[in-house]
Amino acid sequence: MNYLKTVVIVFFCSIFSSTTLAQKHPSLMLTEAQLPEIRTGVQQYPLLQTSYEALKAEAELALKSPLNVPVPTDGGGGITHEQHKRNYINILNCGVAYQISQDKKYATYVRDILLNYASQYQKWPLHPKRKPNHPAGKIFWQGLNDCVWQVYVIQGYDLVYDALTAKEREQIEQNLFMPILKFLTVDSYETFNKIHNHGTWNVAAVGMTGYVLNQPDYVEMAIKGSKKDSKTGYLAQINQLFSPDGYYMEGPYYQRYALLPFILFAKAIHNYQPQLNIFAYRDRLLAKAINTSLQLTYTNGVLFPFNDAIKDKTYESIELVYGLNLAYADIKEENHLLDIAQKQKKVIVSDAGLKVAKAIAAGKTEPFKYQSQWIRDGGNGNEGGVGVLRAGDHKDQQALVFKAASQGMGHGHFDRLNILYYDNNAEVFIDYGAARFINIESKRGGHYLPENTSWAKQTVAHNTLVVDEISHYQAKEELGEKQHPELLYFSNQPQLQVVSAKETHAYADVDLYRTTALVKLPELHKALLIDVYRANSANNHQYDLPFWYNGHLVNSSFKINAITDNLRALGKANGYQHIWKTAENTLDTQGGFITILNNERFYTTHFTSGEALVVKQMAIGANDPEMSLFPGKGFMLSQAAAKNQTFVSVTEAHGGVDPINETITAAGSGISNLSLISSDDKQTQISFKLKGKTYNYTINYQDKDNYIIIK
Amino acid sequence: MNYLKTVVIVFFCSIFSSTTLAQKHPSLMLTEAQLPEIRTGVQQYPLLQTSYEALKAEAELALKSPLNVPVPTDGGGGITHEQHKRNYINILNCGVAYQISQDKKYATYVRDILLNYASQYQKWPLHPKRKPNHPAGKIFWQGLNDCVWQVYVIQGYDLVYDALTAKEREQIEQNLFMPILKFLTVDSYETFNKIHNHGTWNVAAVGMTGYVLNQPDYVEMAIKGSKKDSKTGYLAQINQLFSPDGYYMEGPYYQRYALLPFILFAKAIHNYQPQLNIFAYRDRLLAKAINTSLQLTYTNGVLFPFNDAIKDKTYESIELVYGLNLAYADIKEENHLLDIAQKQKKVIVSDAGLKVAKAIAAGKTEPFKYQSQWIRDGGNGNEGGVGVLRAGDHKDQQALVFKAASQGMGHGHFDRLNILYYDNNAEVFIDYGAARFINIESKRGGHYLPENTSWAKQTVAHNTLVVDEISHYQAKEELGEKQHPELLYFSNQPQLQVVSAKETHAYADVDLYRTTALVKLPELHKALLIDVYRANSANNHQYDLPFWYNGHLVNSSFKINAITDNLRALGKANGYQHIWKTAENTLDTQGGFITILNNERFYTTHFTSGEALVVKQMAIGANDPEMSLFPGKGFMLSQAAAKNQTFVSVTEAHGGVDPINETITAAGSGISNLSLISSDDKQTQISFKLKGKTYNYTINYQDKDNYIIIK
């Protein structure tokens, strides 16, 4: 731990004990002081109004349904699981509805259901559907969900606190919350002290409950770890789970998930112990974490789905609504955040949501400022990172994501130097995400499927180089954790945006170098995607470079040798067994092109390697006994045996289809004659023709001042 | 031709000659009299304003581009094709912009480009990319497009008429329009007199040009055919191409396409010869045609894509904007039409569009009245038909389409008694549509692909019974044209909506009976889809019933025997060669179920046949040498050999997934124990359990008063 961190932690320790905790209620997301303005705000500010109306409708539904606190029995997605989930959602909704409407019926609901839980909880053993070697819960199959339950429920309790009698509070606190605190800190000691998103939910549940119940000892443990030495606990998690740029190493899907307990607990700390100045901690880390979460999305709202990720997650996700509201209200009033708030179409009915809705109603919204940036990974910011290059306006933006980050723990994929490409509000070169039907019991209990390991994490499932049909780091997490790629060069200069990185440990004797750029040329409306992938080795290897895409292949420079019957898997292992080979062509040294039509636009990828090249067409789905894999298509550039290999591709987005008027524009690419002139450790030179003009594109690997020259 | 039609035609003939044609300009979609109100309307009424602004922006773009009238060279989607298309769109846009803005620059554009066409047209031979045995054009590869060009261009000319000098008009009329009239009526005599949508475009082009040029002889030929005996021409087409319910036999995609010339020419007749009362002709046939076009869509806007159809066509299609505007303005002001107008997000800048926009601005919009109805096919309404059953509100409507129509000429598919099922704003049991990449030159010139014949039209590509792996009518159009299915029973009673029909000629010795119903039971929120398909024969046959679906299979009552490698085509011919068999299971007499997750909702289909049953899983894509087929999945119920066979399926829409909150509701079906009790010519009896209650469902084929009993 570095000196600065030590200073900060010492500071925290010194002021900690001198604090008297305020004990008003409510005092978490909604505070007593703001309530009058929120109560009028829900009638004045449209976004707050609709958010409250939706919440109130849900609260009404809760009141109509019979109280149901079943003995925990079922796993994820099953009946008792879903019921307890609905219960905590209802408790929070009714708590908020009570405070806004001041109608006691909502408080009565919360009281009754909490008394019911209080009457049963201590009889519940560890959950019958718990998994071996996985922290169990009591209400749910895993402890994580018990923590989430507690985070929601303590907020609901805080909101109805003043409507309860002292006796009722005692019953609930003594028979439910105190036993839960013990379960979360003692029985779940390991998770409570884990530097992990399960640990974050745990400390948030404990800390927020500690504040509401006036249990400062629990609060201190939540913030500084069981031993109160800050080697574990909330602050240690902020230090270690995020890079200095606010990047959470498991990737955007889990960053989004992990964010909520961080910011909810931060809000509690901010309210109860403002002198801790938690939002300033570690150079405004939480603000950066929220911002980076938003920057890891595309203009259509989707989170970049690398590593384990469920692909339909967007920034409408509740965690990012909380994140955005708190960032705007409690950290900094940046009006471009309001753009996404409007697209989220809701605010949290709270102090923060009031502020956001009020600002939107006052017309302060500005377009969200999507950045082209290099986001560092690693607690100290020196474990690779993620490059995001963007070009164009919100309606039609190109985005190139270059993954040169660390392994990302258990949810990380083996996809060093992978790229994703978005354009025209759609995913073009895609990421499969994870193989999981979350919460669908009939699909392996809703857990990650075996195919997540055998397919989704494997290198060949991504748009990056595979050597000898073996995945990076042999698909072993413990090996991958030891090494990270290294950034060679980054530029977000508007005409020439570049990410260049190397990965030299994925294979024992192969060094990988990838340089991907969005290049704006005067002849073209959209930037070209120029990708140069170089593999260096002293020995012969098989090199495969897949590109998984959305859309339909409509043209190619060569007649595709489609395999019309007797479809076979492309290979035997490491993901290859899951791919159907649907075509194979051998091209000469000139290379060739294919054209894809996706979301009414054409994408022509010209490719060459300077030598004879094999191009395969692929479809996902072989060796899928439980029919769990989603359909998908890709093409693969292959070299059967070479020592040094360079794959060059230039992808042009051109023209389009208007299905309503049945017109086509610019169905033909303007690029031709792509050539690889030379490629070695110092330099790669390529050329291509565009509308009669010849362009030369040179990468100077050892000259950072002239890394790429194009003329 | 029946007596009534004869009377009507005699009437038309008698009043025709006594008419003096008005000769004002403009007098087609925009008339001189309405112009003042349109000019203010574009500033007052939002939908008219935005429509005009979009049009004006396109007109501005036309002025900025260099005038380009290339010698016709390229086929569909090619450069000269697209340029001439853009030209006619520009001519109309500039004509309208001229009249609204009164800025001469737009008229100058139209004048210059028409003079250019006039200087070249007579030198152009038949198009070099014309296809053998297909009517050629001069401007375009096919005559159809020349007619479309003329329909647009004559409107543009009419709009700038008063801005041209007499000499300019003479040049354009003598050197361009009169030669075109000759080409369309003499060189294209066959098409001009064809009862076909190509014929409709032709007569519309000739008739509208005849009006604008004051050439009554051409007008009369357009309306009554070259021989002026009404055996061909516009009126004959209205009589023969539509059923009395306004159904166009080629199906919704072509109905939408064919509609535009009908209604544009009708508008011209209405303006120039109002005494013909064209909108009243044949019992308001045109009004019915427009209404039926709209009724053949789903709540998300898509046209039901049966027969040859490109699937992304919606009611935003320009033909349906024209249709809706004219229906509202010139036929009947039904305020529910305004609902769809708002979803179309535009109006035609015209007299009709003004009226629609004004009514919307005045808040007159009512929800569109989607009907459950039987729509008759055939010129006399006795050639089968299409049943549409609907349940639920616009946001979440179930729609069942039952196809028992005639063959539908060359674009018809071999899919007697096919069903499509929509729910929750999505297609659940789907139609592949057509195999065609319209206007994409690299895909066989943008024409229908060979796979349209070998796959898309074949019976097995649809959700209907296939016998012995042979398509209905052996996939021969001339055989299919001779016969049509017969409606046995229809009911749109809200709790029990039914279509029951038979097809007894698709196979020499097999009679097909299908009874499909949407059944609303008190225990369930959504109606059940109950489908009973009976095949009768004296001989043994193989019976296959496919269901093609959207979504992913997530559960089944049996362990699916997935084929994990070495994928083989399901069969050899008639579409079977294009299907990969991905799994096969043999079930006992109880049958089983599968559950699909689509668009965040579950669909469990329980099925039985009362005997051991084979269920196959299928994926589209085998024997696809040009990689033209889109991916798709289905399951198939199969009986290897039987004389009489009944397949029963009950599909329940249940529960759902909220990906944003990651919650699941009701992932399990409430239905169980589906049984086929008995089935013969008189009756089919089935039963099933629902929430503990046993339901009996009986079809009494010979008792129309008790066709279905459920208790």
TrEMBL record, chains A, B:
Molecular function via GO: lyase activity
One term under GO cellular component: periplasmic space
Signal peptide start and end residues: 1-22
Pfam family, one: Alginate_lyase
All copies of domain Alginate lyase, residue ranges: 92-295
Keywords tagged on the record: Lyase, Periplasm, Signal
Location(s), subcellular: Periplasm
Domain Heparinase II/III-like C-terminal, residue spans: 379-578
Name of the molecule in the record: Alginate lyase family protein
Natural source organism: Pedobacter aquae
